[in-house]
Amino acid sequence: MRPSIVVAAALAAGISGSASAQDAYVVGITAALTGPPASTYAPAMDALRIYLDGVNARGGINGKKVNLVIADDSAEPSKAAANAKKLLTQDNAVLLINASLSSTYAPVVAEAKNAGVPLLFASSVCPRDVYPPANEGQFCTTAFASTYDSRAALAFVKETAKEQVKIGFSAMAIPLSRGEMEFAAKQAALLAMAALPIEVIPPPTADYTPFATKLKDAGANWVFSWAPWVTQVRTFEALRRLDWKGDFITWAHLEAEGELKRIKDPKLFVIGANALFEDNLPIQKEIAEANKKAGSKYPPEQMTEGWIAGMVIEAALKGAGWPATAAKIQASMSNLKVDLKGLRGGPIEWTKDNHFRTKQYYRIYKWDGSKIAVVKDWYSYDVK
Amino acid sequence: MQLFVNIIVLSSIYALIACGYVLIYRVSRVLNLAHGELMMLGSYLLLTTASSFSGHPAAAIAAAVVLSLTVGVLVYVFLMRKMTGEMALAAVLTTVALGILLRGLMVLIWSAQQQYPGQALGFSNPAIALPGGGRISTFAALLVLATALTYAALFFFLRFGRWGVRMRAAGQNPLLAAQRGINLHAVYALAWGLSTLTGSIAGMLISLDSGLTNTMVIIGLKAFPAALVGGLDSLAGALVGALIIGAAEVLSIQYIDPLLSDVVPFLILIAMLVVRPWGLFGTREELDRV
Known about the structure:
The structure holds two protein chains of two kinds. By secondary structure, chain A is of the alpha/beta class. Helix content of chain A is 39%, strand content 21%. Chain B has one domain: Orthogonal Bundle (ABC transporter involved in vitamin B12 uptake, BtuC). In chain B, strand 1 and strand 2 form a beta hairpin.
C-alpha cells in the first residue's frame, strides 16, 4: 500500500498524531471524507492539512505548532456528533471545523456551543447564523452563499442574453439546493425573465436524460443550476446529448476548472467566488508546488477552498496569541481581515456581527475555444 | 419518442444490475447487498486498467472484465464460502459488511472525486439521432445492447449449458445436487463471478456514459426493487420488473413530479409485497425459504 493511502486511511479513521499535546494549537475537524458527498469536502480538507503542515514546517504560529485532528463523519449526523464530542472533550480542540453536509450541523453546533469553542464552516455551506446578525460562535469561509449566488448569476444572464430569457432551473433534491432554486425562480421573474418550473433531481440518478428532456421540452433557452457538481454537470451533458442549444450557468465548485477543460463548451458558464488556476497567480503556484510535494491525490485546482480556510485559521490563531483559549480565538475571529492574495476578489473580513464576509465577490468563466477565459471580472455585493 | 428512449435506457440499467441480484439469490438463496459496491468496483477497475493499458482500450476493457469476474469468484472463495450452511441472514449481513468495507477502500484508493473512464480510454460519447426525433448517447445505446445480450446469454447458459444446468440444480435442491456429484462450491463461485461481472458491466457502461462517482453504489440499490417486483428467483421477472420500475420513474418525472421518481419504485415494491410477495414471476416456495 502506498504511503499516501496509509495516511488517508489514518485520516479517514480519525487517527491523529499527538492530539493531546497541549503545547500546540489543537484544531479539530469533522468532515465527510467518505460517503456520497466526499468529493466536495475531501479535497478541501486535504488542502487544509497541506497548508497547516507548511505553517508547522515554517515554525508554527506564535512559535507553536498547529495540531490538526481530523475525524471522518461520512456525512452522517450521528458520527459528526460523536466526532465533535471527542474532539472537544478528549482532544481539547480550541477551534472546531465542520466540513460536511448541512444535516450534520445541528449536533456539531450544539457540541461546540456547550464547550464554548468557536465553530468554523469550511467548504461546507455557510449557515444562516454566520450572516449578520451573526451568532457569536459560528464563522464561515466557504465560497458559495445562498441568495447572493442566484442574484449574481441571474444578473449576468440578464445582461448577457440577447433575446427574451426563458430560464429553467435544476436542483438536487436537498433542502439547500431546492431553496436556492426557488429563490432564483422568484428573482428571475423580478428581472422580467420567464421562469420555468424547477427540475428537482434526486441524488443520485442513474440517467439524467428524463430530467433534461423536461427542461428542453419546456423551451428553456437558459438553465441555471445550483447544486452539487454531479447534478449540475450531468444535467448539462444530458441536455447537450438531446441537442439542446441553450446557455447553461452553474456554480463553480471545486471540480469546475477541470470540467470546463473536459467539456469544452463555450455556452457553459461557471460563476464562482474563487479564482480559477487559469489566472496563474503566485499563490496558485505555491498551492500547486505544495500539492505536488505532499503527493496529494487531488489536483491543485481543487485546493483553493481548503487553502483559504488555512489562511484564515492561521490569521485567527495568530491574533489569539499564546496560550490560546477558545474565547481568545473567538475574539480574534470576530475582528479579522485576511488578504487572500487574489484567490478571491477581495479579503475575508469578519466583524462582530458578520461572520460570513462583508463583501461577496463573483467572477464568471467559460471555455472560449482554446482555454478558460474570464467572461465577467470580479463584481461584488455588500453583505448586510 | 424521447420518452420511449428514456424508459428503455433506464429500464436497461436496472435490468442489467438486477440480474446480478437474481443470479446469486437463485443459486444460493443469498441476497447480495454489496452488489452496488461490486458494480462500482468494476468501474474503478476499468479506470485503473485504462491507465495501465494506455492507448489500448480493448485490452483495458478485457482486463477489467476478467478482473471483475475474478473479484466475484474471490469474494465467494474467501468470504461467502464460510457462510455456506449458515443461516441466510448471516450471509446477508456479511454482504452488508463487505459493502461497507469496499466503499471505504474505494475512496481511499481512487479518491472521492468524479472520474471519467471514457476520457482515460480516449472514447467520446456522441449522441445518436433516432427515427422519430429521439436521441440516445452512444454508451447508453451500448448499455441497452449489453442488457439484451446478457439476458440472452444467461438464458441459453442456464437452459442449455452444462454449468448452467448445474446452477439451476444447486438452486432447486442443493442436497440432491451434491449427492449427484455437483461441486456446490464451484457452482456458487461461478454464480458470484457472473453476478459481479454483469453488475460491473453495468457500472462500466454507466461510468463511460456519464462519469464515475462514489454515489454509484446507490444506483445499485435502486435496481433492487426491480428484482423484487419481478421475483427474486426469476431472470425474466427481473427484466419485466426493471421495465415497470423504469417506466414508472420516467413517466412520473415527465407527467407528475420529478421528486416522485425517487419514491415510485418503492411504492410499486410495497404494493407488490402486499399483493404478491413473491413477485410477478417468483415462486411462493422461494419466498418461504427466505
